[in-house]
Amino acid sequence: MKISARNALKGKVVDIAKGQIVAKVKVDVGGQFVTSLVSVEAIDDLDLKVGDEVSAIIKSTEVMLAK
To answer: Which residue range is the domain that position 27 belongs to?
Structure first.
């Protein structure tokens, strides 16, 4: 698969919390965690499970910082 996004972080799925429509997926990226909200349908289509190696692909028009 080719993709135009250049911000891809490789990591491992450490938690999946499914709701009725949306799931929260927590990915360990070198000791830091990225959380993604995706549809339950997407989780099922990808057959995503805890322990799977994935790429967290970040596509955004802005990055906000707060202190």
So the answer is: 7-51
Give 19-65 pLDDT, tens digit per residue.
Answer: 999 999 999 999 999 999 999 999 999 999 999 999 999 877 777 76
Alpha carbons within 13 A on the beta-carbon side of 4? 2
The answer as to whether 26 is a domain residue is: yes
Predicted TM-score (pTM) of this structure: 0.84
CATH of the domain at 27: 2.40.50.100
Confirm whether 22 is domain-assigned.
yes
Secondary structure, 3-state, 1-67: CCCCCCEEEEEEEEEEEECCCEEEEEEEECCEEEEEEEEHHHHHHHCCCCCCEEEEEECCCCCCCCC
